[in-house]
């Protein structure tokens, strides 16, 4: 039943299919701003004189399905919290919940618009290119760029530590959510699931590592967004609210730990390549 509902939800409605609705409300501009902020390239609309890499498009398509479902779930959570806060007299937190929920709703709109663009590209196979075989390319980042004071793995971080903290169990939960995102994807797109490394090229590893930094940053922001709940609920002894905060803190903290575990597994490889790259 859940799968059937997700398929129904992910289906485009008539007013969406041309993309005019999203362009009218400024979604392409918002997408470009966010893409630039996180160092990513936005999906360009199809044009007969342009080309796009098919694998990259399918990776974005699968990742977008996951992100859309994830953010819609967040919308429901914050809507419920807003209602509870209004009923119990926490007016500021009710509006705060609506404000946070609106950011997730904007992400939903962005992902739906990007999916429209990608599906249009996939309808034109003549404009799609395959990735070039990598022989020996210059690694694009330097040691200094990799050794970020925060994102660089710390000496005490290890797979054993992350396993002891329960990160591997949380990974299964994330994969379950990911599979929900793939319920409407075709078999070819499912091969490009973005949360697993399927290629061993240095550029694929580098892109994966950068994605862990983006995801970790998002969840760090999520923790900051929830601090007002903690302050108010501790001060007023609202135990249900504290349970809500604990649940959201768990999701954000373990999402951060999962990204750090991912990064730990590829960081040494990237560092070795950075050390081999000739200095300009």
Tell me about this structure.
The chain contains 12 helices and 2 strands. With 280 residues, it is mainly α.
Largest sheet, if any? 2 strands, parallel
**Could you say which structural class the secondary elements and strand pairing correspond to?**
mainly alpha
Q: How many H/I helical runs?
A: 12
The low-confidence runs, each spanning 5 or more residues with pLDDT under 50, are none
Strand portion, in percent? under 5%
Mean pLDDT: 89
List the helices and strands and how they pair.
Layout lengths: L1 H9 L9 H5 L2 H11 L14 E2 H35 L2 H32 L5 E2 L13 H4 L12 H6 L2 H15 L5 H4 L11 H24 L1 H10 L2 H38 L4
Helix pairs in contact: 3-5, 4-5, 4-8, 8-12, 10-12, 11-12
What keyword list fits this structure?
280 residues; mainly alpha; single chain; two-stranded parallel sheet
Describe the structure concisely for a colleague.
The protein has 280 residues and is an all-alpha fold.
